[in-house]
Amino acid sequence: MTTASPLGDTRAAWLLAGVEFFFALSWVVYVIFLPELLARGGIDKRYLPWIIAADQLIFALADWWMGVAVDRARAALRRIGPMLVLLSAVSALAMLLMPWLAATPVLFLLAISVWVATSSALRAPPYVLLSRYAGRATLPRLAGIQLLGLAVASALAPYLAIVLKGVDPALPFLLSALSVAASALALVYVERRLPAAAPMSSAAADSPAAASGSKASWALLLLLALLLALGQQVHSLINSAAHFKRLADPALLPWLMPVFWIGFSFGLLGVGRLVRARGPLQVLQVACPLGALALAGAALSVSLAALLLSQFIAGIFWASILCASIGLAAESGNPLHTGRHTGALMATLAVAAFSRIGLAASGGAAALGAQLLDWLPVALWCVVAVIVRRMR
After folding, report:
1. Are 261 and 314 in contact (CB under 8 A)?
2. Contact residues for 154 (Cβ-Cβ < 8 A; gap 6+)
3. Rounded CA gap, 324 and 287, in Å?
4. Contact residues for 249 (Cβ-Cβ < 8 A; gap 6+)
5. What per-residue confidence (pLDDT) applies to 133?
6. What are the tens digits of pLDDT across the range 198-247?
7. Is 390 exposed, middle or buried (0-12, 13-18, 19+ CB in 10 A)?
8. b/e per residue, 227-260, with b = 16+ CB within 10 A?
9. What is the C-alpha separation between 124 and 338, in angstroms, rounded?
10. Which domain holds residue 129?
């Protein structure tokens, strides 16, 4: 494959980071205003977590389907950018209509379903575009740049909840919808700068590299990704707030919670080169046990300074784990299956979010108790560390 210049590769990754940022920000706006919109339609607030959990299941199904669709389009040498922009436009329209449909529960829930399903055009496909842009070997580095959009949006989430308090949902939803629709045009720009795709020979599909990516090993990788993502979800979205409340004034939470995502951002800036030099599996073998130690440090912290340091380091290792996982997804099996592998990985992250929401909403988190819940992420990451240590 003829690759673009490194400068061009980086420019494409930064453009897609903007897409990721606006997509993640639209999700933050949605979660902030969802309770108010449900109240407008007379939907009991106890259904709130289950609606968000259902969103994650739709994400999971749509992510995998989008990955398969992208692979089929690539195999037929068709451009996928226009299709992604069309889906993004539908997603933006569905989000724009949500505040106006909130009074009609059936239409409102339908709009949510359409928005979530079509939003998958902004999740897995951009990583496939990056893999075509510069080759699978450099995907983790470029994916790290792209993930900065997610990191910044996640860090801003607590502040947005304060800033948007009391604001009419119509304006934030309008701005989010327009931003997503406009930023999606970057997908067409990136794809048009791709080198011409070449047909994949059957020999490539039957190569030793493709043969080694058996279904069994791929299923194992997805299971490990699920355990890692569930550990991260429980730590950052359930345990972290309790840890900070134990050692600091709860009023400071909006300023303390982003520390994990700040560490995640710093990790993204350097992990790509490390993955390229050492390989994704070796990075994963190191990041999992060290990340587990950082999570343990957060659970055992007796001072705010120690907790902040543990959160920052845990964020760095989560960045390493996520980028290495994307690298493994890109390298596994037939090169024509990059889309479905990346889509399956995104779907696995959505299933982890669903599991975390279900754990909290069903009372499972309370049943486990604070102490067991503190050590659940550590245990999950340690299990994965033991398994990946034996992988070759």
Report:
1. no
2. 24, 28, 258, 261, 264
3. 9
4. none
5. 58
6. 444 444 444 444 444 456 677 888 999 999 999 999 999 999 999 999 99
7. exposed
8. bbbbbbbbbbebbbeebbeebeeeeeeeebbbbb
9. 10
10. 11-196+215-389
CB 62 within 8 A of CB 341: no
Q: Are 234 and 356 a contacting pair, CB within 8 Å?
A: yes
Residue 35 CB coordination number (10 Å)? 11
The per-residue DSSP string of 14-57 comes to HHHHHHHHHHHHHHHHHHHHHHHHHHHTT--GGGHHHHHHHHHH
pTM above 0.85, yes or no: yes
Burial 147-168 (b: 16+ CB within 10 A, else e): bbbbbbbbbbbbebeeebeeee
C-alpha span between 374 and 230 (Å, rounded): 13
Q: Is residue 91 part of a domain?
A: yes
Q: Is residue 23 part of a domain?
A: yes
Cβ-proximal residues to 33 (8 Å cutoff; 6+ apart), any chain: 99, 164, 169, 172, 173
Whole-angstrom distance, CA of residue 7 vs CA of residue 74: 24
State both tokens at 310: 């543990």
4 falls within a domain: no
Domain count, the chain: 1
Q: What's the gap between Cα 294 and its chain centre?
A: 21
- For residue 379, what is the domain's CATH number? 1.20.1250.20
What's the CA gap between 30 and 24, in Å, rounded? 10
Average pLDDT over residues 380-390: 94
Q: How far apart are CA 13 and CA 18, in angstroms?
A: 9
Tokens read off for 318: 């989560």
Examine residue 209 and state whether it is found in any structural domain, yes or no.
no
